[in-house]
Structures are given as structure tokens and as C-alpha cells.
Amino acid sequence: MPPRSPRRTADASVAVQDLADVCKHLSFAHRRTAYETLLSVAVDGVLPRGALTELAQKFRCHPRTISRLWTQARLSLHDVHHAADVASKTKGNSGRHALRTSDEIEAAIRNVPQMQRQTFRSLSAACGIPMTTIFSHMKKNPRFKARSNYVKPHLTPANVEERLKFAMSFVWPLPGGRHLFNDMHDYVHVDDNWFYLTKVERRYYVYDDEEVTAQAVKS
């Protein structure tokens, strides 16, 4: 076997160094195309000399990336796969791992009373989970959402009668069967809902199988 040309080896080394930091990850489509290209030039499963480096230059990645792709695809054919597995192992295995599972976050949120679930800040302080984690959980879990609740009047028959008497007390009878309504210039009008610090609308972060706490105001 004739010795390799030093010039060719040097050129390959320079090419590898130039491509070392060009592209670290290939998309699935590029990985599939690269494997099919190697498959077209392979003879009995053996690649010709320089095929990996040449293909790496084409896809602007390191030759070891193409080499690992070829090895992974060939090994997957020995398993139960009917097609070569060229998917990247980076997806789902990179980045910081979650400290809590989705079920653990849900259990912690459900243990918080709904009155403390009106904002992310109050919910985070009550359950001990960061607001960013709760927000990410909400995006991934459509069952967890914000729902509004409105104040409803809580009137008994006695309340209705008292209110009617109070309203009729401002109607003054006049001669001739006529009536005059009190101008109420000597009264101060106050919204009793806000006077007693009762919000008309409240928003809670709950799951779809949870009932929002009913609000009823009796005056």
C-alpha cells in the first residue's frame, strides 16, 4: 500500500481545524441527507477514503460529527428499527434538568388556598416555587389557567323587603296624588363594595377541574 501524501494529510488537517467551530449541531433534515449521501457512496457498508471529511466540508461541521452519525445509523439497523436512526441525541438531553416534575408542581399548587392564587407572586410565595417555573408550567399544561369570578348579591327575602322600604322612604307624597323624590343633596354616596374593600372581580389561577370560590356580598 503506497504511503499517504504529506500534503494531502496537511490539507485535511487544516480543513478539520477550520471546521472545528463552524457548526456544532445539524438539523434532522441535514443529518438525514448526510446519511443518504454516505449510503450512496459506501461499498458493502465501507466508506471510501476522505468521504467523511468531504461531506463535513459540505455541511460545514466537524468530520467527527459525520462519523458519529454514520456509526449511529448503522448500529440502529441491527436493532428492531426498519429505518436508520439519524436523530440527534442532543434534543431533550441538553440544558438544565428540571428540579420538579409537572405532577409535583400541580400538587403544590393545589395545596394553596385559592385566595392566595390571585397573582403569580402570591402563588409563588405560598407554594415555594419560582414564578418562572409556574409560568412555564402554565404554558405546557393547558388545564392550568386563569379564571375570573365576579361578586354576586346575596339577598334574603328580609333584605329585599328592607331595601324596598329604604327606597320608598325617599318618595314624598304631595297633594293631588302626586309624589316627589328626595333630591338627596344631604347624603354622601359611597360604593359599599369598595368601601368594605371587596373587589367586584377577582382572578384565580386554577385547574379546569377545580371550582372557583364563589363571592357573595350581603349589604
UniProtKB/TrEMBL annotation:
The stretch of residues making up the signal peptide is none
Recall the GO molecular function terms of this protein's record. nucleic acid binding
Q: Where are the transmembrane segments?
A: none
- InterPro entries cross-referenced by the UniProt entry: DUF7769, RNaseH_sf
Q: Which part of the chain is the DUF7769 domain? A: 27-76
Q: Which domain of life is it from?
A: Eukaryota
Q: Which PANTHER family does the record associate with it? A: OS04G0681850 PROTEIN
The name this protein carries in UniProt is: DUF7769 domain-containing protein
Species classification: Eukaryota, Sar, Stramenopiles, Oomycota, Saprolegniomycetes
